[in-house]
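Write out the 3D structure for:
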Amino acid sequence: MIICTNKMEYPLRTQCQRVQKQVMVNGEKERVSLLFTKAPVSRGSVDAVSQQMASHPQYLESFLRTQHYILHMDGPLPLPYRHYIAIMAAARHHCNYLVYLHSAQFLRVGGDPLWLQGLEVAPPRLRLLNHINKVLAHQPWLTACSHIQSLLKSGEQCWSLAELVQAVVILAHCHSLCSFVFGSDTDSDFASLSKSPNGTPPTFCPFDAANGNTNVPQSLAAPSEHITRRRSLDSSCDMVCLKERIQKSQEEREKREERLLQTQTLQQTDMEEEEEMICFSDPSRFITDPDFCYQEFTRREEDHFQVFRVQDYSWEDHGFSLVNRLYSDIGHLLDDRFRSVTTLPSLHSPDLKRAIWNYIHCVLGIRYDDYDYGEVNQLLERDLKLYIKAVTCFPDATKTPVCPLSWALLKPSERIHVNLLIMEARLQAELLYALRAITQYMIA
């Protein structure tokens, strides 16, 4: 994936600038088409998340730029580590879509396929992230300075501060993206393909179905009020050919598995075949302590939970500068996402958007002293609050969240906007807890 911006240098920057000059400012159709040429693709097929976000091209551009930077651009972590961390994060919410996507990308960047057999065979350094991964995913208020210290002082397996910051950003990015995937129902169609009648993974990967189809579908180039979820298999695909391909893959599967046991590395010519077999790794393989999940944030005396007050540690005054200093430029990219999602043209009033944002932070233990929380109950109907909390705190349990009745008259783009607000508010909340713990470690 290549994202061309004025702030970054890319081999095709000049060419992209020429294309961008041809796009009229008010031509949303043209802008969406251009964004899809830059969207993350797998074998040429536009991914489902980008299709959902296409109704908000301004935000989509910011999202793709950030995602590309943390997963593919310069940074302290090697590429296989980045995608494996993304797998660990998505697995906490049993998000098949993201686990399969990053499993395939993990292999393409040279990751060891044996690691996909489960967390127990991953390098010890990656396994050390397991605790902070589950805490950030489910109960981020438990993130403590001691967690940071244990990672930075683990002998031969210790992490550097720069590595840990990038890892935390990837974890928070993928956790929050899980909320969007489930909230927009992106995972449901994909999950059905990952199951076969006998309970074993199929031997083909839906990312291969497009077979190099890089054209943007007409329905995506011009978003309508009846945008439907992308099916993992192209509707124009010849079913006869597909069945023949599946049958052929099944015959070759045993040979591939035998070869996999004999060697720990794969030749580049065999990489794509192995991707088809392994990209359907069961998310549960990467989870320990599966019963650890979201619990109501309370201030019960026996738990000693303290409310995170933004006046004491905020993104603008503290988190932004710290993360930008330890992981160059990521602060600017993240800040652009936060600003973009809250300033998108929308039928939702600024007060409503702020109520959604602050409510999400509230259920995660973050409070604003200068905000009247009575507005939350005034502006958010009960069914909308239940939906927001479900998608934010336990998206994997909801699977297909019940949309509020009040959404019946909303445009699809307005519904997506709410899911984007949920994702970004959750992302910022996790980052605040992690960065505060890192700050406490640095000044201790």
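The two ends are 41 Å apart (CA to CA).
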